[in-house]
Structures are given as C-alpha cells and as structure tokens.
Amino acid sequence: MALNNLPDIYFIRHGETDWNAQGRYQGRQDIPLNARGRGQADANGPLLRGLLERDQLIADDFSWFVSPLLRTRETMDRVRSAFEPTLVKAEIDERLIEISFGKFEGYLQRDLVKDGIIKQGERDAEFWHYRPEGGENYEQVANRIRPFVTSLEKPSVVVAHGGIARVFRHVIEGISHAEAVNWPTPQNTVLHFSGGKMTMYESEVSSGGGVFSSSSSTA
C-alpha cells in the first residue's frame, strides 16, 4: 500500500565508486567516489536546484538527510554546492546506511551466484528475505526505513544508497518485493517521491561532470 500522505522527498543515490564499476558488493564498506561518481554528484546538484526552482520551492524549507558513509556524505556535499552556502545543515541518519551484505562484501557479484546472491533482474520475491551470513535482508532494512519516512515533518532531500532506494520504493510506492529487488538504481538521477508515487529525473554527465540536459519519467 502506497504512503500518499508524506511530505515530498527528493532522493539521490551516491555517485559511482570503483567497487560499483567493478561489480563488487559494497554494503557497509566505506568506499569513496571515483572520478565518474564525483561528476554524477556534481551534476545532480544543479538538477535538484532546477527542480526546486521549477516548482517554486525554497531549499532552506527542506530537511536534508544523509547516510553516514563517506560516499554519501561526499555526494551530499557536492549536491549542496549548487545551493547558497547558508543552506541548512544536513543531518546524518544511521537508518539510511546501506544494506549489509555481511561476509560477501568486497566480492564480485559474478562470483557469488553459487552462494545465493542472485544477480539483479533474475531475483524472485523470496530474495527480499535472503540474508547473507553477518548481513541483513531487505525486510530488516524496511523495518528501519519505514519509521524514518513516516517521521518526516516537512519536505526533505535524502542522499543514500541503491539498496535504500529500492526499499524507499517498496515502502512509499508499495511496489512488490520482486520488483524492488530487481530495480536498477541509477546514480545520475533525482527521485521525487510525492503522493505515493515516484518520478525519476535524469542528468547527463560529461567526463568533466557537467550537466547537459535532463528528462523525467514516472517509474
């Protein structure tokens, strides 16, 4: 069931890291952005600012929340650089940390199929409940994300992770477990949750991190 009575939320996934590019499971590992990831974060700032200006919204009227990991905090800093320096402080919230892959963190995705880590696009609904040794499953993540989103008192900007974006879509839009665990989570986008639905806006990033254009589609 969709949560259609929440304040608007603008969600940004952190930019690319070397581990993302290599296809490694990161989870809680504190891997920094690479050059492409910094460009994605730099492009998402003006994109977000443009969306707020289009809708005549004031950035200082928003709450800003970020996962505690380095890649999300750097992404947040780069996004916020598109706004006035007097912008209200971003709050680190531990509930936004990425899903833990436990003993599999650092391993290449292609090497883990035999251990039950089914690749994206081929997972069934049961994968929502799959928990690797020392890690979490998506249901456990949903149990910390649900109280986060329902506690929001005003429009918010959230910078977090791919696994968290999947759980946001399940919790807010009500998409199925199977759809959530198979949804690819792009890093050059701003996701706008409003009225229980998500609209995705995409920036085009050059090798130098510039914004060329943006487009939107409801997912």
Brief synopsis:
With 219 residues, the protein is of the alpha/beta class.
Q: What is the average per-residue confidence, as pLDDT, rounded to a whole number?
A: 91
Using the coordinates above, name the CATH class.
Alpha Beta
The low-confidence runs, each spanning 5 or more residues with pLDDT under 50, are 206-219
For the terminal residues, how far apart are their CA atoms?
A: 16 Å
Largest sheet: 7 strands, mixed
CATH architecture: 3-Layer(aba) Sandwich
Tell me the β content.
15-25%
Q: What's the shape?
A: globular
DSSP summary: helix tally? 6
CATH superfamily, please? Phosphoglycerate mutase-like
Order of strands in the sheet with most strands: 3-2-4-1-5-6-7
Overall radius of gyration: 16 Å
CATH topology: Rossmann fold
Structural class, by secondary structure, is alpha/beta
Strand tally? 7
Give your account of this protein's structure.
- The protein has 219 residues and is α/β, with parallel strands linked by helices.
- It has one domain: Rossmann fold (3-Layer(aba) Sandwich).
- It is built from six helices and seven strands.
- The chain has helices at 18-22, 35-54, 70-80, 138-150, 162-173, 177-182, and strands at residues 9-13, 63-66, 91-92, 156-160, 189-194, 197-205, 211-218.
- A seven-stranded mixed β-sheet has the order 3-2-4-1-5-6-7.
- Helix 2 crosses helix 3 (70-80) and helix 4 (138-150) crosses helix 5.
- The chain is globular.
- Residues 206-219 have low confidence and may be disordered.
